[in-house]
Amino acid sequence: MVILQPGFLPWLGFFDQMFRSDVFVYYDDVQFDKHGWRNRNRIKSPSGPAWVTIPVLHSSKHGQKILDAEIDYQQNWPRKIIGAIRQNYARAPYVADYLPELEAVLMKTWRFLVDIDLAIVDMMCRWLAFQRPLFRSSELGIEGDKSGRLLAICQHFSASKYLSGNAAQDYLDTGLFLEAGIGVEWQNFNHPTYPQLHGDFIPCLSALDLVLNVGSKSNSVLRGNS
Question: Is the pLDDT of residue 146 over 70?
Fold first, then answer.
Protein backbone atom coordinates (compact mmCIF):
# COMPACT_ATOMS: atom_id res chain seq x y z
CA MET A 1 0.00 0.00 0.00
CA VAL A 2 1.33 3.43 -0.98
CA ILE A 3 -0.36 6.75 -0.13
CA LEU A 4 1.36 9.72 -1.72
CA GLN A 5 0.52 13.33 -2.54
CA PRO A 6 0.21 14.14 -6.25
CA GLY A 7 3.11 15.96 -7.88
CA PHE A 8 3.97 17.75 -11.11
CA LEU A 9 6.32 15.81 -13.40
CA PRO A 10 7.40 13.71 -10.39
CA TRP A 11 10.90 12.43 -9.70
CA LEU A 12 11.95 8.80 -9.93
CA GLY A 13 11.36 8.17 -6.22
CA PHE A 14 7.64 8.83 -6.76
CA PHE A 15 7.46 6.25 -9.53
CA ASP A 16 9.57 3.80 -7.52
CA GLN A 17 6.90 3.84 -4.81
CA MET A 18 4.18 3.44 -7.41
CA PHE A 19 6.05 0.57 -9.07
CA ARG A 20 6.48 -1.23 -5.74
CA SER A 21 2.84 -0.84 -4.73
CA ASP A 22 -0.09 -3.19 -5.19
CA VAL A 23 -2.52 -0.34 -4.56
CA PHE A 24 -1.62 3.36 -4.87
CA VAL A 25 -3.68 6.19 -3.37
CA TYR A 26 -3.21 9.84 -4.32
CA TYR A 27 -3.40 11.78 -1.05
CA ASP A 28 -5.17 14.69 -2.70
CA ASP A 29 -7.30 16.15 0.11
CA VAL A 30 -4.58 17.32 2.49
CA GLN A 31 -3.23 20.86 2.68
CA PHE A 32 -1.51 22.26 -0.38
CA ASP A 33 2.13 23.06 0.36
CA LYS A 34 3.00 26.27 -1.45
CA HIS A 35 6.71 25.54 -1.76
CA GLY A 36 6.44 21.79 -2.31
CA TRP A 37 6.31 19.56 -5.36
CA ARG A 38 2.61 19.72 -6.21
CA ASN A 39 3.07 22.38 -8.92
CA ARG A 40 6.78 22.35 -9.76
CA ASN A 41 9.78 20.19 -10.43
CA ARG A 42 13.29 20.37 -11.82
CA ILE A 43 14.81 19.57 -15.19
CA LYS A 44 18.47 19.74 -16.16
CA SER A 45 20.04 22.75 -17.86
CA PRO A 46 23.68 23.48 -18.80
CA SER A 47 23.98 25.47 -15.55
CA GLY A 48 22.39 22.79 -13.36
CA PRO A 49 18.85 22.04 -12.12
CA ALA A 50 16.17 24.43 -13.42
CA TRP A 51 12.63 24.78 -12.09
CA VAL A 52 9.51 24.35 -14.22
CA THR A 53 6.42 25.60 -12.39
CA ILE A 54 2.66 25.79 -12.83
CA PRO A 55 1.51 28.97 -11.03
CA VAL A 56 -1.36 28.50 -8.61
CA LEU A 57 -3.90 31.01 -7.32
CA HIS A 58 -3.26 31.78 -3.65
CA SER A 59 -5.25 34.92 -2.78
CA SER A 60 -7.91 34.25 -0.13
CA LYS A 61 -7.08 30.55 -0.27
CA HIS A 62 -4.83 30.05 2.75
CA GLY A 63 -4.92 26.47 3.92
CA GLN A 64 -6.59 25.15 0.77
CA LYS A 65 -6.44 21.44 0.01
CA ILE A 66 -4.46 20.07 -2.91
CA LEU A 67 -7.58 19.15 -4.86
CA ASP A 68 -8.89 22.74 -4.53
CA ALA A 69 -5.75 24.47 -5.84
CA GLU A 70 -6.61 26.32 -9.05
CA ILE A 71 -4.16 27.11 -11.84
CA ASP A 72 -3.26 30.75 -12.55
CA TYR A 73 -3.48 31.48 -16.27
CA GLN A 74 -2.44 35.13 -16.01
CA GLN A 75 0.99 33.90 -17.07
CA ASN A 76 1.65 31.91 -20.24
CA TRP A 77 3.26 29.12 -18.23
CA PRO A 78 2.53 26.26 -20.72
CA ARG A 79 4.66 27.89 -23.42
CA LYS A 80 7.33 28.72 -20.85
CA ILE A 81 7.58 25.13 -19.61
CA ILE A 82 7.52 23.65 -23.10
CA GLY A 83 10.15 26.14 -24.25
CA ALA A 84 12.42 25.31 -21.31
CA ILE A 85 12.17 21.58 -21.98
CA ARG A 86 12.70 21.99 -25.71
CA GLN A 87 15.71 24.23 -25.19
CA ASN A 88 17.45 22.18 -22.51
CA TYR A 89 16.74 18.80 -24.10
CA ALA A 90 17.22 19.75 -27.75
CA ARG A 91 20.00 17.17 -28.02
CA ALA A 92 18.31 14.47 -25.93
CA PRO A 93 17.96 11.26 -27.98
CA TYR A 94 14.24 10.78 -27.33
CA VAL A 95 12.83 14.29 -27.06
CA ALA A 96 10.95 13.95 -30.35
CA ASP A 97 9.30 10.73 -29.14
CA TYR A 98 7.85 12.12 -25.92
CA LEU A 99 7.67 15.91 -25.90
CA PRO A 100 4.73 16.22 -28.36
CA GLU A 101 2.44 14.19 -26.06
CA LEU A 102 3.50 16.17 -23.01
CA GLU A 103 3.02 19.41 -24.91
CA ALA A 104 -0.54 18.38 -25.82
CA VAL A 105 -1.36 17.81 -22.14
CA LEU A 106 0.19 21.09 -21.03
CA MET A 107 -1.62 23.08 -23.70
CA LYS A 108 -5.06 21.89 -22.63
CA THR A 109 -7.00 24.23 -20.36
CA TRP A 110 -7.14 22.84 -16.82
CA ARG A 111 -8.89 24.47 -13.90
CA PHE A 112 -7.47 22.40 -11.06
CA LEU A 113 -3.82 21.56 -10.55
CA VAL A 114 -4.55 18.02 -9.37
CA ASP A 115 -6.17 17.12 -12.68
CA ILE A 116 -3.16 18.00 -14.80
CA ASP A 117 -0.83 16.38 -12.24
CA LEU A 118 -2.72 13.08 -12.44
CA ALA A 119 -2.99 13.24 -16.23
CA ILE A 120 0.77 13.67 -16.54
CA VAL A 121 1.51 10.86 -14.09
CA ASP A 122 -0.81 8.58 -16.06
CA MET A 123 1.04 9.48 -19.25
CA MET A 124 4.44 8.92 -17.64
CA CYS A 125 3.35 5.54 -16.29
CA ARG A 126 2.67 4.50 -19.88
CA TRP A 127 6.10 5.78 -20.84
CA LEU A 128 7.63 3.76 -17.99
CA ALA A 129 5.61 0.70 -19.04
CA PHE A 130 3.68 -0.16 -15.90
CA GLN A 131 0.19 0.26 -14.47
CA ARG A 132 -1.20 0.10 -10.95
CA PRO A 133 -4.67 0.37 -9.39
CA LEU A 134 -4.97 4.08 -8.60
CA PHE A 135 -7.38 5.78 -6.17
CA ARG A 136 -7.88 9.26 -4.73
CA SER A 137 -8.23 9.71 -0.98
CA SER A 138 -10.87 12.40 -1.57
CA GLU A 139 -13.15 9.78 -3.11
CA LEU A 140 -12.84 7.15 -0.38
CA GLY A 141 -14.91 8.87 2.34
CA ILE A 142 -12.35 7.99 5.02
CA GLU A 143 -11.93 10.51 7.83
CA GLY A 144 -9.20 10.87 10.42
CA ASP A 145 -6.01 12.74 11.06
CA LYS A 146 -2.35 12.08 10.33
CA SER A 147 -1.24 8.50 11.07
CA GLY A 148 -4.75 7.42 12.01
CA ARG A 149 -6.14 8.29 8.61
CA LEU A 150 -3.27 6.64 6.75
CA LEU A 151 -3.91 3.51 8.78
CA ALA A 152 -7.64 3.67 8.02
CA ILE A 153 -6.90 3.87 4.29
CA CYS A 154 -4.63 0.85 4.54
CA GLN A 155 -7.35 -1.05 6.41
CA HIS A 156 -9.92 -0.04 3.79
CA PHE A 157 -7.89 -1.94 1.19
CA SER A 158 -6.99 -4.80 3.58
CA ALA A 159 -3.31 -3.97 3.22
CA SER A 160 -0.73 -6.03 5.08
CA LYS A 161 2.15 -3.60 4.48
CA TYR A 162 2.46 0.18 4.14
CA LEU A 163 5.37 1.55 2.09
CA SER A 164 6.41 5.10 2.96
CA GLY A 165 9.10 7.58 2.01
CA ASN A 166 11.90 7.96 4.55
CA ALA A 167 10.93 11.53 5.47
CA ALA A 168 7.83 10.18 7.22
CA GLN A 169 10.00 8.56 9.89
CA ASP A 170 9.84 11.92 11.69
CA TYR A 171 6.08 11.80 12.21
CA LEU A 172 4.51 8.45 11.32
CA ASP A 173 3.19 6.53 14.34
CA THR A 174 4.50 3.11 13.33
CA GLY A 175 3.25 1.58 16.56
CA LEU A 176 -0.31 2.30 15.48
CA PHE A 177 0.24 0.27 12.32
CA LEU A 178 1.93 -2.60 14.11
CA GLU A 179 -0.93 -2.83 16.61
CA ALA A 180 -3.29 -3.19 13.65
CA GLY A 181 -1.16 -5.93 12.12
CA ILE A 182 0.17 -3.81 9.25
CA GLY A 183 3.89 -3.69 8.64
CA VAL A 184 5.66 -0.43 7.77
CA GLU A 185 8.44 -0.45 5.20
CA TRP A 186 10.66 2.54 4.42
CA GLN A 187 11.43 3.21 0.79
CA ASN A 188 15.21 3.69 1.08
CA PHE A 189 15.32 4.66 -2.59
CA ASN A 190 18.64 4.03 -4.31
CA HIS A 191 18.69 6.56 -7.14
CA PRO A 192 19.92 5.03 -10.41
CA THR A 193 22.37 6.72 -12.72
CA TYR A 194 21.91 6.91 -16.49
CA PRO A 195 23.26 8.94 -19.44
CA GLN A 196 22.45 12.64 -19.01
CA LEU A 197 23.10 15.81 -20.96
CA HIS A 198 25.06 18.79 -19.60
CA GLY A 199 27.95 17.32 -17.67
CA ASP A 200 28.07 15.44 -14.39
CA PHE A 201 25.10 13.36 -13.32
CA ILE A 202 22.50 15.14 -11.17
CA PRO A 203 19.96 12.99 -9.26
CA CYS A 204 16.44 13.81 -8.05
CA LEU A 205 15.24 15.60 -11.18
CA SER A 206 11.87 15.02 -12.79
CA ALA A 207 11.56 11.51 -14.24
CA LEU A 208 11.14 13.32 -17.54
CA ASP A 209 14.93 13.65 -17.58
CA LEU A 210 15.28 9.87 -17.57
CA VAL A 211 12.68 9.32 -20.29
CA LEU A 212 14.08 11.92 -22.69
CA ASN A 213 17.59 10.52 -22.27
CA VAL A 214 17.04 6.75 -22.40
CA GLY A 215 13.54 6.27 -23.88
CA SER A 216 12.13 2.74 -23.74
CA LYS A 217 14.95 1.62 -21.42
CA SER A 218 13.53 3.84 -18.66
CA ASN A 219 11.62 0.98 -17.04
CA SER A 220 14.78 -1.12 -16.73
CA VAL A 221 16.70 1.83 -15.26
CA LEU A 222 13.99 2.48 -12.67
CA ARG A 223 13.92 -1.20 -11.67
CA GLY A 224 17.70 -1.25 -11.37
CA ASN A 225 18.20 -3.53 -14.35
CA SER A 226 20.04 -1.11 -16.62
Answer: yes
Report how far residue 59's alpha carbon sits from residue 63's, in angstroms, rounded to the nearest whole number.
Answer: 11
Report which of 58, 19, 11, 43 is spatially closest to residue 225, judged by C-alpha positions.
19
Strand ranges across the sheet with 2-4: 134-136, 24-26, 2-4, 161-164, 183-186
Which one is predicted more confidently, 226 or 5?
5
Q: Determine contact, residues 52/65, Cβ cutoff 8 Å.
A: no
User: What's the pLDDT score for residue 61?
Assistant: 60
Q: Cβ distance 153 to 25 under 8 Å?
A: yes
Long-range Cβ contact pairs of 166-172 (< 8 A, separation 24 or more):
171/146, 171/147, 172/147
Q: Is the pTM of this model over 0.90?
A: yes
Q: How many CB atoms lie within 10 A of CB 201?
A: 13
For residue 57, give the nearest of 41, 79, 34, 90 by alpha carbon.
34
Residue 37 has pLDDT above 60, yes or no: yes
In order of 29, 75, 127, 177, 189, the CA distances from 212 in angstroms are 32, 26, 10, 39, 21
Q: Work out the mean pLDDT of the chain and round it to a whole number.
A: 95
